[in-house]
Specification:
Elements: E1 4-8, H1 13-23, E2 26-34, E3 40-44, E4 51-55, H2 62-79, E5 83-87, H3 106-117, E6 121-125, H4 130-134, E7 140-143, H5 146-154, E8 161-165, H6 171-181, E9 184-187, E10 190-192, E11 199-201, E12 212-220, H7 224-235, E13 241-248, H8 254-260, E14 263-269, E15 277-279, H9 282-290
Length: 291
């Protein structure tokens, strides 16, 4: 059997160790020193060998963690010709096309860097855009945390649950979530100003009165869309509101703003470790690595 080494980046370390344990793999940890000017110095605890799996999310600070992930992949590639980059949260996934004239398709450059660094395969969880994944080539794979999140919600035994996507782009995600809950689902009509970022919720024909709402999204960053959705749903007479997301970025005061909007709880996975983490995706990732 081929030896496997999991190289643990700066985050999410708990998820990386769980993946290594499930794979019965050797572990090489990394020590990160930050210089005053923002540079990072990386020191590995050992020398990786065999099949190498680098685990590092590229959440904020996105640029720093992207460079860290690339550096770890590059080092792994010096020791092995079988390197998989597991990027539980893939930053820049939203920049998959030119939305306004002159905008760069940044994920395309990020993908090229990972491939040039020596990543033979890329594995990520609920990437924001499947178009973004295409830039990584045939060795790229996306897995979903939706089943695990839905199973967690099932344990809460909510009465009359209704699964809601904050926008039309997430309707498939909401449908899959609702199928596991044996519940109904629908998507709000959201409009975002590309220049200002302002979000407006359009009318909804679905009756949410006294229904327990699960707002489902792939990621929550500033929380603006969730706040607007929650405010709208409360105005329509819903009962409690819960948020289930794969990646809880929760920048600045996002979590407090979401709670202030009337959301009871935010439930997220350990692709990004924080106070809302409730769901472990190590089994999902390991299954994909062994497929």
């Amino acid at each position: 059997m081929t030896k496997t080494t999991v190289i643990v980046g700066s985050s999410p370390t708990e998820l990386a160790h769980s993946i290594a344990q499930r794979l019965d793999a050797d572990i090489v940890t990394s020590k990160i020193k930050r210089f005053p000017d923002g540079e990072s110095k990386i020191t590995l605890s050992g020398e990786p060998s065999g099949r190498c799996i680098v685990v590092q999310s590229t959440h904020p600070p996105v640029d720093t963690n992207t460079i860290l992930a690339l550096s770890l992949v590059l080092q792994a590639a010096k020791q092995s010709d079988d390197v998989t980059a597991v990027i539980p949260y893939m930053g820049y996934g939203r920049q998959d096309k030119e939305f306004l004239p002159g905008e760069l398709v940044t994920i395309q450059g990020v993908a090229k860097l990972f491939l040039l660094a020596g990543a033979k395969n890329i594995l990520t969880v609920d990437i924001h855009s499947m178009t973004a994944l295409d830039y990584f080539g045939g060795g790229a794979k996306n897995v979903s945390a939706i089943p695990s999140l839905a199973e967690y919600i099932l344990t809460m035994n909510l009465e009359r649950p209704l699964v809601v996507s904050p926008d039309q782009g997430g309707i498939d995600r909401a449908d899959k979530f609702a199928h596991i809950l044996n519940a109904e689902s629908f998507a709000l009509e959201k409009r975002r100003d590309r220049e200002t970022g302002d979000v407006k919720i359009q009318n909804s024909k679905v009756n949410v009165h006294n229904r327990n709402i699960i707002l489902v999204d792939d990621m929550v960053s500033t929380g603006g869309s969730i706040v607007k959705a929650a405010q709208f749903l409360i105005s329509q007479g819903c009962a409690d509101i819960y948020v289930a997301c794969t990646h809880a970025l929760l920048v600045n005061d996002a979590l407090q703003n979401i709670k202030d909007a009337g959301v009871q709880k935010v439930i997220s996975t350990n692709t990004i470790p924080n106070s809302t983490t409730s769901v472990d995706v190590s089994a999902t990732i390991t299954d994909a690595l062994q497929a």
